[in-house]
Specification:
- The complex is a heterodimer of chains A (about 110) and B (about 130).
- Chain A contains no helices and eleven strands.
- With about 110 residues, chain A is an all-beta fold.
- In chain B, about 0% of the residues lie in helices and about 50% in strands.
- Chain B contains no helices and 13 strands.
- In chain B, the strands form three sheets. In chain B, strands 2, 4, 5, 6, 9, 12 and 13 form a seven-stranded mixed sheet that branches. In chain B, strands 1-3-8-7 form a four-stranded antiparallel sheet, with no helix packed on it. In chain B, strands 10-11 form a two-stranded antiparallel ribbon.
- The chains are: A mainly beta (about 110), B mainly beta (about 130).
- At the A-B interface, strand 4, strand 5 and strand 10 of A face strand 5 and strand 12 of B.
Chain lengths: ~110, ~130
Amino acid sequence: IQMTQSPSSLSASVGDRVTITCQASQDITNSLSWYQQKPGKAPKLLMYDASNLETGVPSRFSGSASGTDFTFTISSLRPEDVATYYCQQYDTLPLTFGGGTKVEIK
Amino acid sequence: QVQLVESGGSVVQPGRSLRLSCAASGITISSSAMHWVRQAPGKGLEWVAVISHDGTNKNYGDSVKGRFTISRDNSKNTLFLQMNSLGTEDTAVYYCARDARGYSRGWTYYYYYMDIWGKGTTVAVSS
């Protein structure tokens, strides 16, 4: 299953609403997670089952699904959110990741 | 403190072999499926392999199938990745990660997302 993530990068101001999308090449029944990776660090799980927030993750992060289209949103961008974000499907092996979205501060 | 610590990464010549280890502390991994995920320099994440909690089910990404072998020693709370016939395309940071809820029902195995990650170990394949 191919995961097409967009945009590949974005620049936004502190306080802006940021949206990242991920499109699956076939139905994955909401079996989608989102990760945050800061430079030189391991990925960190943010969300699972498309819209469930992992324990301890700030509520400014959210996710939604519509068919094979998935959206990840940061409601109010903060400086510590600078990172690359990845989606991952777990409906079918092999597990696959989106190409990543690099989020920077304008 | 819950952590996964990878080791074994190094610089190796093409065609050679390498064995990575992932030691868990603060958690017992014997009830969890475990994954290896890699990241080539400047690139995105690539899933490599998964092993069921009891080691009886293993699955691999197409790019490593037939060359890499995932295994585990639950008595030592440790995961392994044996990498053979290494090529320059295998140069990457290798992460081990715990499957958040993987389970088996009869002979069917289900794998999900990764909730605990190690910091990674670097493998560089170069002549």
